[in-house]
Structure formats: C-alpha cells, structure tokens
Amino acid sequence: MKTPLFVVILFCLLQTVQVYGADCDCYFVEGYFGGAGDTVSNFYLYRDGHHTPFLTEGKMDTIRQITLHDTLTSDVYAYLQKATMVKQFRVCNWRHADYSRVYSLLARFLTLERFEVCDRFFGNVQLAQIASLPLRTISIETEQSLLFNNTWKFPENLTHAYILTSQRLQFSKEFSRRAGIVNIVIGYDAAKGFPHGLDKMKHLQEVAFVGIATMNADAALRELLPIASQLKSLDFSNCGVEIIPSSIVKYTSLERFYLIGSPLRHGAGILNSLPKLRDVYLFFWQYSTDEKKQIRQELSAIKNVGFDD
C-alpha cells in the first residue's frame, strides 16, 4: 500500500519549524499568484529593503496565498491591503506581540478559507481575534494553552483543524456543539488532561493524535466513546503507542487506522474484529521483514496492511 497523501502532508507540516527557524537570515513575504499574463509567482522582502517588483494594481486580484515570515513592513502592508481574493494566509515565526496589522489584513480578505500560524506566543487573545473569520481550515502551532470558546462566530464553517500545543487544549461545550469539524489533528500536554469538548463534536470523522509522548491511548479512546460510532479514521503519530488500545473494539465504524513512529509490539489481531476496517498503515523504520510478515498474518481480515515501504 502506498503512503497516504495525508501522511506526506503531515510530515511536511511537521518540518515547518525546522525550515523557517529562528536562524532565518531574511524577512520576507512570499506570495502565490494565480492567473496568467504578467503575474509573478512570488516576491521577497529582505532586511535591506530589497524585493522583487510588486504586481500592478490591476493584477492584485490574482493573489491567492500569502505567507508572512518574521515581520511585516509598512510598504508591503499597504500593498497587500489592495488584494481582494486571498484564500490562504500563513504567519510563521512572528517576532512581535502585536498582531494588529495581521488581523487588519485578514478582515479584508472576504474569500479567506485557511489560516495558518506557527508562533510560540500565539494564545487565546490572538485566537479570539480570528474567531470572527468564516474559516474552513485552521493550522496552529504554539506553546500556549488554547481554549476554543463561545465567542467563535462561525464554528460551523470550520471543517479541518490542525492544532499543536505543548500546553492544554480545550473546546467549550457551545463551540463543540456548533462546530462543523470533520477532520482534526491535535497535539497537547497529556499531563494536563484530555481536550475537553472533543467528544461532543457531532460531525467529527477523523482524529489524529500527534507528538503526545506521555499519551495513554486507551484512556484517550475511552474519552471519545460518545462519538465512537461516527469516527472513520484514527491516527497515533509519534505518541509512543506500541499496543493497540483494547477500547478500540467499540469503534465499529472505523475504516482506517494509522500507527506512525512507534513499533507495534503485540495485540494487532484485535483490529480484525472491526467490521469496516480496511486500511491499516504502520510507519516505523525498524520493522524487520519477519516482523512485517507476522503482523500481516495477524491482520488476516484486513484488506490493506501497509508499512513505510
């Protein structure tokens, strides 16, 4: 079985911090410009003020994606205010506590669908400011606690969420009740508790746990039992899970199961009891040929069993 596309995307996302780290030697804005003719693919703003030529005002409606790294200068801010059709906006390694210019731009982009931020200081104050945007996708990497609360204006629009924090993660009852989230990728501090409210998202179908080193997978699945019948995909990535949680037998609608970054020591056979499970993907580079053969034999009822090869 080939590596699933979402696994490749997830791996790339996890590399973002390394690629755009604190040692970046330039400040720049990178833009993706659609359309044809004299549009340009991207432009950069360096510390010395040098940048590639801006688009003419007549072509501003071709901008679809903008990424800000480190800072936003006055001239670029004024220039980007003229864009009208931006769909994706990213902020990486922001070095300022003040997000006012960022949110001023976001409010102008009426077609905005996706917002991504990689900022260790991004917290509830900043989260509240994007709550008025009709986003479909959010991606947040931070070192602050996050609470998705009742102030979120368009939770039903939000269908995909990628949220990694080294602190606590919570969803209020009202937010969870109204949320349209179908797919969620989360990382949090397990010592501070399972994300409150996750078990009340009635549209949720796919859950991926990422980088939770002290995670008790069985306890996590017991927390999600209220929505077990609606979940179609479960993923444990770099969570130290080596045994299939016994409570997984309650997840009778499960179609896909992923265990990434940890070896499956034993207990694989329990997955055979899930009537709709068709795909099991195990990514761990130290599996021997004999171990792969044994696991495939244990999972005799599963149509597709894939490894990292």
N to C succession of SSEs? HHEEHEHEHEEEEHEEHEEEHE
| CATH structural class of the domain at 205-309 | Alpha Beta
Which architecture of the domain at 205-309 would the CATH scheme give at its second level?
Answer: Alpha-Beta Horseshoe
Number of helices: 8
| Number of strand elements | 14
Cα-atom radius of gyration? 21 Å
Biggest sheet architecture: 12 strands, mixed
Ends distance: 8 Å
> Strand order across the biggest sheet?
1-2-3-4-5-7-9-10-11-12-13-14
- Give the overall average pLDDT: 81
- Give the overall shape, derived from the CA principal axes: elongated
Indicate the structural class. alpha/beta
Q: Low-confidence stretches at least 5 residues in length (pLDDT < 50)?
A: 5-29, 32-49
What would the keywords be for this entry?
single chain; 309 residues; alpha/beta; Leucine-rich repeat, LRR (right-handed beta-alpha superhelix); twelve-stranded mixed sheet; two-stranded parallel sheet; 19% helix
Give your account of this protein's structure.
This protein has 309 residues and is an alpha/beta fold. The protein has a domain at 205-309: Leucine-rich repeat, LRR (right-handed beta-alpha superhelix) (Alpha-Beta Horseshoe), CATH 3.80.10. It is 19% helix and 22% strand. The protein is built from eight helices and 14 strands. The protein has helices at 5-14, 16-19, 74-80, 100-108, 124-130, 173-178, 217-223, 289-298, and strands at 28-33, 63-69, 88-92, 114-118, 137-142, 146-148, 160-165, 169-171, 183-187, 206-210, 233-237, 256-260, 279-283, 304-306. A twelve-stranded mixed β-sheet has the order 1-2-3-4-5-7-9-10-11-12-13-14, with no helix packed on it. The chain has a two-stranded parallel ribbon with strand order 6-8. The longest helix has 10 residues, at 5-14. The protein is elongated and about 60 Å long. 32% of the residues are buried. Mean pLDDT is 81; it is low at 5-29 and 32-49.
